[in-house]
Task: structure prediction
Amino acid sequence: MKSIRLRPGKERSLLRRHPWVFEGSIDRGRADPGETVRVEAGDGRFLAWGAYSPQSMIRVRAWSFDEAERIDADLFQRRVAQAVALRARLPIASDAMRLVHGEADGLPGLVVDRYADTLVAQFLSAGSERFRASITEALLAATGLARLYERSDVSVRKLEGLEPRSGWLKGQGATELTIREHDWRLTLDVATGHKTGYYLDQRDNRRAFADIVRDFGCRRVFNGYSYSGGFGIAALAGGAEHVTSVDSSAPALERAQANVALNGFDASRHEVLDADVNQTLRAMLEAGRGFDTIVLDPPKFAPSAAHAERAARAYKDINRLALLLLEPGGVLLTFSCSGGISAELFHKIVAGAGIDAGVDGVFYARLGAAPDHPMTIDFPEGEYLKGLAVIKR
Ligand code: SAH
Result:
């Protein structure tokens, strides 16, 4: 077993069970991609077993902090079974859910979603790639399912020196599926959809949005960055009269229309705009359009803290425009899924947008990712999705 020796003082984060070792913390030692290494402190003390990734800034991801634990197929069986068992205890109002959420489930670099009878996996690090066969077996055993599609066609794999890959790992057949979420149904395609097909992390916020629409009597809805229409369906279910879905992806909007029809809502209650949200908000302000509620769920503007400043301006701008466009008494539901923007910073950005807009707002709710996207107490990077519901005075 190869050892990776850390520089003096660099053991602190592993001692706090934070699972990453950055390139700059390493004094000596190297290994092959994904190879299991013993990570030790400057004095040789054991810290963790981890997966070495020679090209990544995150040079080692810890599999275990227990020296007696072996990193083998059994470990993956146990970890996957534990992740699946946790989901079975969580209140998840859907037959689609995240079964494995990387670091938070003790499986760094692995994401697995379940859509009805189909599993979709992303192997995102050299370590999870190395144990792909064991992980696949563990997933099929823990769920009893027979279909597993791989969506490792993600740009972060490049940072790990891995090529993109996708296709059936087990089973075959249609990649277009229908899932149930709360009281509605949605279609998605695990081969071509964003991420693994759908944004599962927003499940509970869609429910919250349906409630807001009903409780506040919102009639006209602007669903910015709609993707396949999840928040729009929620709004229609909550009694909205009309939803405008805006996204820059034509296939996503087509699916949004299909999802509106699938749930029995009249097509006249839903319009789609294949456009940039920022520009659309401006155009609608100029045209004097009004909305009772606005959702802003943009893509990651800040993939890391280094992009935070530019991203903060972009977030502030769309939120400012949305606050202007809202009717008094209307509700803004606004999100950031940027790891580089903390909850506190996001709060400040939205507050700044209100000041610039000359609009006074009341925070109505703070929102986060659904519980099947758990966050552990040792890994603050796990908190990526933050949302705020703001009532315009
Ligand atoms: N709210 C969605 C998820 C949104 S993900 C849901 O609940 O499922 C972000 C979406 O923003 C993607 O669908 C992407 O196509 C879209 N997008 C990215 N940049 C955009 C832009 N500048 N204007 C409009 N849409 C954009």
In short: The radius of gyration is 22 Å. The pocket of S-adenosyl-L-homocysteine is lined by residues 194, 199, 202, 225-228, 230-231, 246-249, 252, 276-277, 297-299 (CB under 6 Å). Residues 112 and 121 are 4 Å apart (CA to CA).
